[in-house]
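Sharing in case it's useful to others searching the archive later.

Someone asked me privately for the predicted structure of Peptidase S8 and S53 subtilisin kexin sedolisin, so I'm posting the question and my answer publicly. Question first, with the sequence:
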Amino acid sequence: MSAVSFASEPGVENRDEINTNNSQINFNKYEKEGSETYKDDIRNDKVFLKRKTIDTDSDRIETFSTSKFYTDSTQKYYIVQFDGIIKQKWKQQLENKVVNIINYIPNNAYLVKMDGSTKSGIEQMENVQWVGVFKPAYKISDQISNSEKASVNVTINIFKSSNISPVVEKVEKLNGSILQKYRNSLNVVIDKKNISQIAELNQISYIQQYTEPTLLNNKARQITNVSYVETCYNLNGDGQVIAVADSGIDSGADNETMHPDLNGSFKDIINYAGSDAADHNGHGTHVTGTVTGNGSARGAAPKSDIVFQALGDDDGNLTADINIYRLFSEAYNKSARIHTNSWGFVSELNDYGEHAKSVDEFMWDHKDMLILFAAGNEGDTEDNESISRPSTAKNCLTVGATENNRSSMGYSSDDVDEIAYFSSRGPTNDSRIKPDVVAPGTNILSTKANITSAENDYTYMSGTSMATPHVAGTASLVRQYYMDNLSVTPSASLIKTTLINGAYDITPVRYGDLQTQPNYVQGWGRLDVEKSIKSIQKGNIYYSDGVKLNTREVAETKIYVNNSSNPLKVTIGWTDYPGESYSSKALINDLDLTVIGPNGTDYYGNSEVVTSGHDRTNNIEEIDIMNPDTGVYTIKVDGYNVPQNPQPFSMVISGSIEKVKISSIEISPQNPTIYDNQTVLFNADIYDKNGNKINETVYWSSNNTTVGTINSTGYFTANVSGTANITANKDGTSNSTTVTVEKQPPELTNINVTPLDPIIYTNQTLDFDANTTDQYGNEVDVNVNWSVGNDSVGNINDTGTFTPNKTGITNITAKNGSIKDVTNITVKEIPYLDYANITVNSTRINANQSSIIPIDNPDLKFSLLTKDQYGDPYSFEPEWYSNNTTVGTINQSTGVFEINDTGLTKIYWTNSTNDTITGDTIENNITFDIQERKFDAIKITNVVSEFRPGNTHDFNATPVDQFGDGYEVIVNWTSSNLDVGTINNSTGVFNAVNTGSTNITAKNGSINNTFTIDVVKDEVESSTDSSSSGSSGSGGGAGGGNTGEEYENIKEELVQQEYVNYGEQVSYEFRTKENKIKRVQFEAKKTAGKVETRIEVLKDKSALVDENAPDKVYQNMNIWVGKAGFNNNIKNASIDFDVEKSWIEENDINESTIKMCRYHDDKWNKLQTQKLTENETVIKYRANTPGFSPFAITGENINKQDINTNSEDSELDGSNHTSINDNQTTKTANNTTMQSSGNGDVIGIGAWDMSWLILAIISIVVSISIYIKKRGT
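And my answer, the predicted structure tokens:
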């Protein structure tokens, strides 16, 4: 067997190349050009669901609200249909709009998850045909809707990304019984009337009728030629691992108790249902013997290793609890790459449901595992459409049964070319071909389970159950051949395609005028492994595996048929992306097979079952030409519609074929001469040994890429002068020619006019210049013609001199032939001085007010800022003057002012050059007063207002003059209350003595500065302080890690320390994943040094509280700041926290109801909470809090009725938490009193609460009265 690889010429981008052996056929892979359009036979106005085919033309855009159908989530599921085959860029645009694509739905649609705001943007996309809600009615199968039973047994399927918990809660609320819980589904018994309520849940994808799995019950080796390939090619399954899932296996242990034909064959035995893996039915033992038996009734692969998965219980029945994906995963993890299953579900025949989807999903995820299923035994000669589930899956190999060659046992096994009467027939509900192949299934002799009967080692059984393991064993032989002889590890689709390509067309006579294969009875024919393996051995069959295609990509190859007496058969297969149980069409990625004969005839895949054009239904396509003309055939695989891209495929070609042998290549033009920077297109004509022209693509190359380069299509681009050899190569045959590149003669290529966009005045002229260069950048001596665009503005002569006529703008052009350059010139009026302003190099002088400067100030430098009428700088030389030369003198030209004495002076300037000045003469001046320095004030630079007894502090005093500069005088210090504190008269060192207040004064003469300081007691921690006791405390923890919380309840503990200084904002940052609190912050009312904040992230509610927080709790925690009573030292406290969006969605939380709750005064109080921002995963909030204690983050379910929670959103603005512990009272809108608890948690009393309060007070009064009466007091 030779490898077919889809490859390209070396160096060409976006091509796949596979070289598996020396007999490779090269396949070109390319994308169709925009002008090469498809014949689009997909209806763009239909979306195919099982419950309804939606006509999207009747309602172009659905505009109704999804709340009509769903109330439990902010994000909903929608169907988005495009107006044609989906292009990759359309899909990318959809994903860029933060849309979660669930899967493709035929035709041209995706099921997506998005919110309403995103939906409006999707509707505006250019190529979107229609957007509609995925309605609850679409999720309920017809079998359930049509059922007359009051109670139904159903399978509820859940979207992968969804949380199953709300579904469980809903089922239990509706009194449903959950029988089994799987990865993404539930088996439930529930009243039929409640099904619609389940379907309304956003998490639900599809609800279908539940059914339990059923078992689908040797000359077969000779009929399928297994014996031949074992003898001739030593193919016996050696090194292959096959998984068998069935009722059980003989004794259940791989030891001397096992059937002698099977003992030692097991890699592993896994029990799923019964007390052990023993076979209480006999079915599994018979099936396993058909696979690998090595005795008298020899299996197809006697040297293979078996992973057996026992699904039967102790009564011989299959378990209902089959998680198909897990079943395959466990076998795969034990190295099984063939998996055979002779069981299925016989309700909802021909349907593509969740089980079939799981098969396809696993094979898409594990493309090297071939899974086989028996088609079922529900067949009837007069009735098709009886395929059991999950053999309706696209990717598995579905096996039907033919008759055996045991005429002595009756009519059911007397014609090997007949279908067994019981074998299930297709098509599936979406018209796919099933079964894929057939094999002997009547009166099959194989191993018998000793546990069922002690007599004999073998027994006869009939059914597709018997045909399927035989095909599984044969598949392992094909896999063995690829691995041992071709060093190739084949994909599941390659093994499947190889078996189908070699299948024999039996065309059963009892079906009258039934067409040849493929058809819905035999699929692609009866298994014939000799034809597959023998053809490989002869070398006239080719294969390809794993080439990937996107939409509009094409893989193409050519073969040569040298003998028309043998059929030409081309088969492709691909493991398709899993479909959806709610869709009425299973195929997702659609590839097209086309073969073009030597005479130009087009052949399409599966033309026997497709009335015209290409197959739009199956993921196996075959073209069978019985008597092909000799010559070259072109084979194409077209990525017609690949919405879940890319799609790999496998191909097998058989017949009297060989690679197209190239004899010669002719290149044109021969030996051309071109100039540098020019291009020339080379063509290559390819001829075979008979002189026939072959339409193939060559690989072009240049031996001198400095001179020029050539691309894949033959375009040569010259770079520099020189010569290069151009070679065209195809499969080792080549030809060359020479291209000569010469330098082009110089010619004018560029004119550059200078100056660029000049500005002149009406009294000026300007000379333009034109720089002329050739293509090499050298100057060229040529004349240019000058012209002006608007001669009323000015004129230009032949030499480029421009003379203005008036103000305005015009263009100037220099031109020679077709080469030119253009610039603009602006003519303005003659400028004049329009603005002047005095500036000075001293910050002490303000031009807009009287200023003072010291007499010892350095010289001042005055300047004049001038502008013309256009706002441009104006060159002007003013003369400077001072009106008081006694105070100082100024240099008339430089503007430098020298200070001589104290006093007032004015600086001004005059126009000495007769420059034109607009309007009135511009005048401005600066007046300032020169003064001697004098002592003016005392500044205290380090005031501290609060001390503890025993504290000392060194105060600093700075005397300054009237200019704010330092002044040297002696400062004396005094304290007004020596009992509170003393201060050193000269040094300013203060000693705090007792508590109280004192005024500190710094003084020199009549100038002084006085401030007040307080001496207060140290804060003392008190265990009896009511402000820190239990959960009723106003905040701080007990300190030292002893908070009173139970150790077992603490999930994570975080501690941060920060310095707390009076008047500063203090922030504690926390960044661990488990902790949802990200920041604790407050404003300090006192300096307290280093203060510790401790967060205890809890597993459950705090041990310090009596009840759970209201609503749905996201996180419980304790937050402690400082020691007991520390809350008195802070204000404006807040807590920043994160809430994950996944929790909000999974629990159907209304994000606007998320609050931080604080436990205080023996009850939960909701704090004022605001949303800050959000990203893809979390929403960030901030809650204002009057103190620190146990907390909980909570939120309300969307469906929860509004409840009057009077304590919600406590108002923590400046009016009621400036002093955190002050009792405050405020009025609500309805004049109900809102009383603070003393810690800032506001407690509201509504009208209903007031009634209860009055009753409580009356009850207390009555009780007290009775008590007093009894005491006689």
